[in-house]
Amino acid sequence: MARIAVVAPPPASALHQLVDDYLMACRARGLAPGTVHNSYGYPLRSIFVPWCDANGVATPAQLDARAIDEFSVALLERGGKDGRPLSKYSVHAYARAVRGFLNWCKREGEQVTARPALPRLPRRVIDVLDRNEITALEAAAPSERDRLVIRVLGDCGLRASELCTLQMSDIIRHDRQAYLRVHGKGERDRLVPLTPALLRRLERYVRDARPKDSPHRQLFVSLRRGHSGDYEPLTRSGLLQLIRHSAERAGISKKVYPHLLRHSFVTNALRAGVSPLLLAQIAGHTSMRMIEQVYSHLNPTDSYDAMIRALTATSDESRR
User: Fold this and answer.
1) Residue 106: active-site member
2) Which H or E run contains 172?
3) 8 A C-beta contact, residue 143 and residue 133
4) Out of 147, 159, 263, 297, which one is annotated catalytic?
5) Which helix (H) or strand (E) holds 171?
6) Would you call 185 a catalytic residue per the annotation?
7) Is 225 part of the annotated catalytic residue set?
8) Could you tell me if 34 and 159 are in contact, meaning their C-beta atoms sit under 8 angstroms apart?
9) Among 219, 209, 230, 211, which Cα is nearest to 143's?
10) Is the dihedral of CA 70, 71, 73, 77 positive or negative?
């Protein structure tokens, strides 16, 4: 009778342990689990470390400029772990994750001599919705809940997950002002201004339209009872369907999805002259990078109009 030999897996390299330690450090910084997994964990554990194993790289010291260039070229020419081609945006994101990891290694005292070059990205232009299209999208929605969802996304610039986790207690009055308390990425809360008209609609929805017997505190819940017998909180997939169906009814030919309304909010606010720094705070951006990307959607007419508004305001002030 043949004996079955149990072969122990080879010990993990120092690089494996460093990646695990780095991801733990990311969590300790307060980054959301989804962000750690998608933006750092997957590129490092599923793309970068397997490539290092296949090429005999066990420590950061072995990652010289040539090795880093070979990794970048492998991504561009042979794609990811399944061999399918990767877009420049994906390669850029993976290389950025490796760069962040190596920067951390250097701060931890590891010998690091190279950092990956980020491929130049083509200028991405997002076909945003103007205010008239957002109004048409809202008008095509079949219920007040759906219309309010669209208006909140278009007027407040929330992420899909932020809208789905809004609670009734997040509608806040302060003196004669009103805000939505938004629970953002990285467990960072922020206050987003509400117009008086939108505040009245939200309060009327809570008072008259939202199901009274739902045990959930979320602001937006399902229109019908689910399998549990309760009105369940609106999910991200339910939100996506809501937006898509409303776009179809409105006859909007653009590809419309929840995050497009966030891009549209930022772009329309910039065109209206809102300060980019203030807008970054309202939208929940920790840096100006996303705002700078949105600027690429603006045309010379937008820049001219913004400058004329600023100069006119300055001139009017000097004449007083």
Assistant:
1) no
2) strand 171-174
3) no
4) 159
5) strand 171-174
6) yes
7) no
8) no
9) 209
10) positive
List 92, 210, 262, 271, catalytic entry: 262
Helix and strand tally (H, E) in the chain? Answer: 14, 3
What distance in Å separates the CA atoms of residue 62 and residue 111, rounded to the nearest whole number?
Answer: 9
Q: Considering the entire predicted model, what is its pTM?
A: 0.70
Cα separation of 1 and 10, whole Å? Answer: 27
- Of 27, 185, 245, 249, which one is the catalytic site residue? 185
DSSP state at residue 167: B
- Cα-only R_g, the chain: 25
22 is catalytic: no
For the chain, what's the residue count?
A: 320
Token couple for 232: 């369940």
Q: What is the pLDDT along the chain (320 residues), one digit of tens a residue?
A: 555 554 444 556 789 999 999 999 998 988 778 888 888 999 999 999 999 998 998 888 888 888 888 888 888 887 766 667 778 888 888 888 999 999 999 999 998 888 887 777 766 667 789 999 999 999 999 999 999 999 999 999 999 999 999 999 999 998 889 999 999 876 788 999 999 999 999 999 999 999 988 889 999 999 888 888 888 999 999 999 999 999 999 999 999 999 999 989 988 888 888 888 888 888 888 776 666 655 555 555 554 555 555 555 444 544 45
Helices 144-156 + 131-140 axis angle, to 10: 160
Judge whether 262 counts as a catalytic residue.
yes
Q: How many CA atoms does the CB half-sphere of 86 hold within 13 Å?
A: 24
Reply yes or no on whether 124 is catalytic: no
Beta pairing class for 171-174 and 177-183: antiparallel
- Residue 69 near residue 55 (C-beta atoms within 8 A): no
- Distance, CA of 215 to CA of 28 (rounded, Å): 33
On whether the 131-312 domain is CATH 1.10.443.10, my answer is yes
